[in-house]
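note to self: dont lose this again. the chain is below, predicted strucutre after it. 285 aa total, dont forget to put it in the shared folder this time
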Amino acid sequence: MATLNVAAPMPVTPRQHRIRWLFGSPIATAGIAVVVTLFAAGLFAPLLAPFPPNGQTNAALQGASTTHLLGTDEFGRDVLSRILYGIRQDAIVAVVSVPAGALLGVSLGLLTGLAGWLDTILQRIFDVMLAFTALIAGVTVASIVGPGLPAVLVTVAVVNVPLFGRITRTSVLTLRNRDYVVAARVVGVRPIRLLVRHVLPNGVDPLIVQLALSLSLAVFIEGAMSFISLGVLLPQPSLGNMLQKSINYLDRNPWYAIGPMVVVTLLVVGFQLIADGLTHRLLRR
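---
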């Protein structure tokens, strides 16, 4: 009698497990879809934008039309085109500053597990950094490095350092007395390797949630700093400086303000949905 050979199922790798965990929440999936769609629109702005972002016409403050779907600004520039290019500024901040701040914060958070005196010093540093609100930190950074995109990048990174540092420290305090960590310590694993290879991988889930929240915060910081002329400077388009300039022309072309406002809202809500979905997944474990 012939035997039926059934192939054993392939084991799920930790990376595959985290991908399934990330997309296992409909809320998080919806947020990812919104964010990816908007960032893709910004990435492909040269292909999607109907006009150059700084191209001027004689049709200043024209309302929505078939030629200019969201109208034009005070210089006759196409609002939709400038929004698409403005999304790029948020994408740059999200891709560069948030990971940089997260990496530095996680590194400092891990160092708290090496010695009590080092933990005390780093906690006081985190306290000082958290005493500054994001906007106050932005004003401080801009006064040092000057207004512009670099000021936004530095501000977002600095603001995120204590957030990730505190979460990592909590994971270190929670996990360092677990059996597998104690066993690794007994067999002679060095402290740094112990923290990186045994503690950090088991405390990464709350860091992923914080990453989504920090991306949402980054969009807010870029918009706020550009709104008060400390972030991306004109004529370079950004969602924040477009909102700032549109205030005086709401009666002429309301889409000048509505367009960037909707995009900012969607980005913030998208990242918040991702964070909420991941939080629900954590609570159901």
